[in-house]
Amino acid sequence: MTFDQGLLPLARQPGARAEFYDRVWGVDPLVTSLPEHEGLLHHTGYGPPSSDYAAYYPLLGPSLSRVVIPADTEATTDSIVTGMRHAGLRYAYVSALPESRATVEAIYDGAQFQLVHMSSIERGEQSGARRYLYRPVANATGNGAIRRYLYRLK
């Protein structure tokens, strides 16, 4: 590896915190910009494995003080609602690969949750030997698009 090959991937990575976590880990900037006093349920297991669990750190906020409660794929609508109410959380964040969208949308049904925000990303250019940067795409049903949902408990 040459000196240029080692530095080029680093030079392509975004510098601002929200942009960095959006492009590198696929975490929606709107979610990371929520006030840190707003706790969050982070529902994992439906998004890309390489970034779904890594999203926990940026969700803690700049001072690492946000309450983030993890939930995995075995969580049901009832268990999520109960857990969120018990912890005093209003928001739930989940990323979903195309094959998991219907499941996620069924779990966060309109009777219990309001969809506050949705965005879509896809894998973009390669940055390093095994990492790809994410890039935004229109909120269409696109083939490989990963949807990021922010729900509010009613």
Structure keywords:
single chain, 154 residues, alpha/beta, six-stranded mixed beta sheet, 7 helices, disordered N terminus
Structure description:
The protein is α/β, with parallel strands linked by helices and 154 residues long. The chain has a 6-stranded mixed beta sheet with strand order 2-1-3-6-4-5. The N and C termini lie far apart (54 Å). The chain has helices at residues 3-12, 17-25, 29-32, 49-52, 56-59, 77-87, 101-107, and strands at 40-43, 68-71, 91-96, 113-126, 132-137, 146-153. The longest helix has 11 residues, at 77-87. The protein has one domain (3-153). The chain is globular.
Classify the secondary structure makeup into a structural class. Answer: alpha/beta
Sum up the overall morphology in one term: globular
Mean pLDDT: 86
- End-to-end Cα distance: 54 Å
Strand order of the largest sheet: 2-1-3-6-4-5
Order of helices and strands: HHHEHHEHEHEEE
The count of DSSP E runs of length 2 or more, i.e. the number of strands, is: 6
Q: Could you name the ranges where pLDDT drops below 50 across 5 or more consecutive residues? A: 2-11
Largest sheet: 6 strands, mixed
Range of helix content: 25-40%
Beta-strand residue percentage = 25-35%
Number of DSSP helices?
Answer: 7
